[in-house]
Design brief:
The complex is a heterodimer of chains A (282) and B (369). Chain A is of the alpha/beta class. Chain A has helices spanning 3-8, 23-36, 66-76, 80-89, 92-98, 102-116, 130-146, 150-164, 179-195, 222-249, 263-280; strands at 12-17, 41-45, 59-63, 122-129, 169-176, 203-208, 253-257. In chain A, strands 3-2-4-1-5-6-7 form a seven-stranded parallel beta sheet, with helices on both faces. In chain B, helix 14 links the parallel strand 6 and strand 7 (271-279). In chain B, helix 8 (157-169) runs antiparallel to helix 13 (222-237). Classes of the chains: A alpha/beta (282), B alpha/beta (369). At the A-B interface, helix 4, helix 5, helix 7, helix 8 and helix 9 of A face helix 3, helix 6, helix 11, helix 12 and helix 14 of B. Chain A: Residues 13-211 form the CobQ/CobB/MinD/ParA nucleotide binding domain.
């Protein structure tokens, strides 16, 4: 599949995955791969302690937090004064408590505004952890029931329309080839697709171990044989997890390797490998 | 330089709290500590407040866990039980015990705001985790409660949540919401602070009225809630409670572990135990450089095997260096912090057998330097 096609079949791509699978690195790598292919790309992080992203002329990186999104929202509704009052009174917490999920809705609303303003050709969101992913995308529908009218009700409708339209938004899950993340991702994927009606892209399987050559173990001395047996067992466990993932989700997989580098170097390597894997998709 | 070993801690503590970021195997460690204690004849309950059903996975329980502890079959002279926090049920129980009359409890539980609060709010989850911990701590069936905190940065919020609730109830805006009395909000809101009116224009007046009636219903129970909150806080800071920071050797896991160490230090909670989980194995007694040299001077399968071992040793050396630096930083704040390193299994941990193996590694004489 052409990179342009992969990245432009939707305008917003939300990356989700459980802790430790390397979700932020994958989101940054996808954004870099998209930017390298010449598409104007916006990477949106939802937390302030985000990954180092390599510079690219087509790539912009922003952080959206609920507090910032709330004051943006209020200003856009002509309530800038209120937003300052709220900040001063420390009552933002009460507003958020009054309407659970409001913080998620505000963040999604900010992303929707980027999409509407055509801030970039490709918007990639370094989304919430897998456990929270469902709450995150379910927030608009839930709030709509609690607060059907007014600015919040309208915002909920608009965000929900975006989330459920595959031409506008898709979800990309990241996992590793181990049983616990595979089981958890499969559950989340099922819920997102069947209960919430969202569309998913192929799953990225991160940190895959490199292939183990077939050696004759009898010819090896103890430490070498132990090392060989360790990597062979690890490879078998990885294969089992990958086939379980396949059985549970029937989703296409983009497998990328584990790297010993970190930060911007890691994102560069992952972007190159992901681009190759995407081009191999039919 | 350490106080006692991790194993001895499992024999004497009444509460153990494990904290760490996602993916470090914190849940497996919590369960393994439970196995160690159960083998020493103690009656242990492990609770997870993680919404992903990881603990059930780790110990091979396929049924969904709930608030009510379930016993795990292990060969031990003691007992091991596991449970998963049900926020709604815990909150309902708390309301029933705190309400002056059953009618007041029902009124509260039927409030629309209470229902959404008890279902979906993460702050509520933190608070109920502390509450549930306290219930199990006072439950005569158990000698030891092990709490597996959520894998988030804010995992330690639950330590402060009882106090935060008490502060919230004292907030002036909250007092105004409580004060107008029956049906008074609509009239009052026009007269009182513009902030309240503005909140209403964002979230809708019905939602705000729901909050107001919730707060009024809650108001009479405040004393009981506050007392319990203080009791929970005392338990968590008492000498019966031990905190364990679990980390893996990857740079992002260590960064998060540093954050937990700072949080504990800020909360004035003593940290005595660190577990370095998922350490790559150190096979043989050579270095990665040695193995790369051997690989260059060999051929065929032997050369390939030297390359494989060199790769594993590179991982092991990086991991050990990362953990050494982390424990040195930790000991600046907590000088007696005791380190236990656990080697990563080549396969996943998702059965009680693998938890038992992990328990053996944890209980082994310390590999700390």
């Amino acid at each position: 599949m052409e990179l342009h096609h992969f990245f432009t079949t939707q305008r917003v791509l939300i990356v989700a995955g459980k802790g430790g699978v390397g979700k932020s690195a994958v989101a940054a790598a996808l954004a870099l791969a998209s930017a390298r292919s010449g598409l104007r790309t916006l990477l949106v992080s939802l937390h302030t302690e985000s990954i180092e992203v390599p510079a690219n002329e087509h790539l912009e990186h922003v952080t959206v937090t609920p507090g910032g999104a709330l004051s943006d929202f209020l200003s856009s509704k002509g309530m800038g004064l209120l937003s300052r009052q709220l900040a001063r009174s420390g009552i933002v917490e009460l507003v958020a408590t009054t309407a659970p999920g409001l913080d998620d809705l505000l963040v999604l609303g900010r992303i929707k505004a980027y999409e509407k303003d055509k801030r970039a050709e490709v918007i990639i969101v370094d989304g919430p952890a897998a456990g929270h992913a469902i709450d995150f995308v379910r927030a608009p529908a839930q709030l709509k029931r609690a607060i059907p009218t007014g600015p919040i009700g309208q915002q909920s409708d608009e965000v929900n329309t975006m989330l459920t339209d595959p031409a506008r938004c898709k979800i990309l899950m990241v996992t590793t080839a181990a049983m616990t993340p595979v089981m958890e991702s499969s559950e989340v994927i099922h819920e997102l697709q069947h209960t919430l009606g969202l569309t998913l892209l192929p799953i990225v399987v991160n940190k895959c171990e490199r292939d183990v050559p077939v050696l004759s173990a009898q010819s090896l001395d103890t430490p070498l044989r132990n090392a060989y047996e360790y990597v062979s067992t690890r490879m078998q466990a990885q294969q089992t997890a990958l086939s379980t993932l396949n059985d549970l989700t029937q989703s296409e997989q983009l497998r990328v390797h584990r790297y010993v580098t970190e930060g911007a170097d890691l994102v560069e390597s992952l972007a190159t490998e992901l681009a190759t894997r995407i081009q191999e998709l039919s | 330089m350490s106080e006692i070993s991790l194993e001895q801690m499992c024999h004497s503590a009444r509460v153990i709290v494990t904290c760490g970021t996602g993916g470090v195997g914190k849940t497996s460690i919590a369960a393994s500590l439970g196995v160690i204690a159960a083998r020493a004849g103690r009656r242990v309950v492990v609770i997870t407040i993680d919404p992903a059903k990881r603990l059930a996975d780790a110990i091979g329980l396929t049924e969904s866990l709930g608030n009510e502890p379930e016993q795990v079959q292990i060969s031990a002279s003691g007992e091991m039980w596991v449970s998963m926090l049900d926020v709604r049920e815990t909150f309902d129980n708390l309301v029933r015990s705190a309400a002056p009359t059953p009618e007041r409890a029902t009124e509260m539980m039927e409030n629309s705001f209470y229902r959404s609060l008890s279902r979906s709010l993460s702050g509520t989850r933190d608070y109920m985790a502390a509450e549930r911990l306290y219930e199990l701590y006072n439950d005569e069936r158990f000698d030891l409660v092990i709490v597996d905190t959520p894998p988030s940065r804010n995992a330690l919020d639950f330590l402060e949540s009882p106090e935060r609730l008490a502060r919230f109830l004292k907030h002036p805006i909250v007092r105004v919401l409580i004060a107008p009395g029956r049906g008074g909000l609509r009239f009052a809101s026009a007269a009182i602070t513009p902030v309240l009116k503005a909140i209403s224009s964002v979230v809708g007046s019905d939602a705000l009225a729901g909050v107001a009636s919730f707060l009024r219903a809650f108001d009479g129970m405040e004393k009981e809630f506050t007392q319990r909150a203080l009791a929970v806080a005392r338990t968590l800071r008492s000498d019966d409670t031990r905190f364990v920071v679990v980390t893996a050797p990857s740079p992002d896991a260590l960064r998060e572990a540093d954050h937990f160490v700072s949080e504990l230090s800020r909360l004035k909670i003593d940290l005595k135990y660190v577990v370095a989980n998922r350490m790559p194995p150190r096979i043989g007694d050579t270095s990665s450089t040695d193995q790369m040299n051997f690989a260059r001077n060999a051929t065929g399968d032997v050369a390939a095997a030297h390359t494989i071992l060199a790769g594993l040793l590179v991982d092991a050396e990086r991991a050990e260096a990362g953990i050494d630096e982390f424990i040195a930083r930790t000991r600046v704040k907590f000088p007696p912090a005791h380190l236990t390193a656990v080697t990563e299994f080549p396969t996943d941990i998702h059965s009680i057998e693998s938890i038992s193996e992990l328990a053996e590694q944890l209980a082994a004489p310390s590999s700390a330097k």
